[in-house]
Amino acid sequence: MDNNYLALRVKELRNQKGMSQEFLAEESGLSLRTIQRIEKGESNPTGESLKRLANALNVNPDELIDWSIKEDKKYLTFMNLSALTFLFFPLLGILIPFILWTSKKGKIKNINKLGKDLINFEITWTLLLFFIPFFWFLMSKIGVLASLTLNIVFIIIGVMYFINLILILLNSIRISNENDIIYNPKIKFLR
User: Fold this and answer.
1) Contact criterion met (CB below 8 Å) for 101 and 119
2) How many CB atoms sit inside 10 A of residue 65's CB?
3) How confident is the model at residue 62, as a pLDDT?
């Protein structure tokens, strides 16, 4: 393991995430002095220290030491567009990207962030999609939403489909332009 590469990688990831050395030390459970030595290339960290750093930086441990991680925007775009399968059946928008993500997890640059954000968004979207008609049915039986017609529920669902479609297409463009992806709202089911 080349300490200079590790030093550059840790510092780069820490800066990308907006972390100070003190915060990284606190999150990883390592001492501040250890973080400083690693970033200067003065220390050869143990496997446990690498694992702690990776967890604190929210990356795969291989991403810290393995420079053979490829940059593949085509695959990232393909994985992102695979979420469009929600148009056929909502659960496919979760399942297909999940399979594509796990098959290349840790082997392509930025795939972990995209995979987690995309799948968290799709799970949140699917739960909302199924919750809205259920909520309408429940409230109409109680008599609370008697004035809310079924047409309005269909309009809300249509707007949700449109928003999902637009976010997937916009994020595909953002991937091609090497910008950060934005999937909101999302509940963090995968961390």
Assistant:
1) yes
2) 16
3) 72
Contacts of 2 (CB under 8 A, 6+ apart): none
Mean of per-residue pLDDT scores for the chain: 87
Distance in angstroms (rounded) separating the CA atoms of residues 124 and 126: 6
20: Cβ–Cβ under 8 A, 6 or more apart, which residues? 14
Its pTM stands at 0.61
Query: What would the two tokens of residue 47 be?
Result: 């496997």
Find, among 98, 82, 84, the residue nearest to 162 by Cα. Answer: 84
Looking at the chain, list the stretches that DSSP marks H as alpha helix, in order from N- to C-terminal side: 3-16, 21-28, 32-40, 47-57, 61-65, 73-81, 92-104, 111-142, 150-176
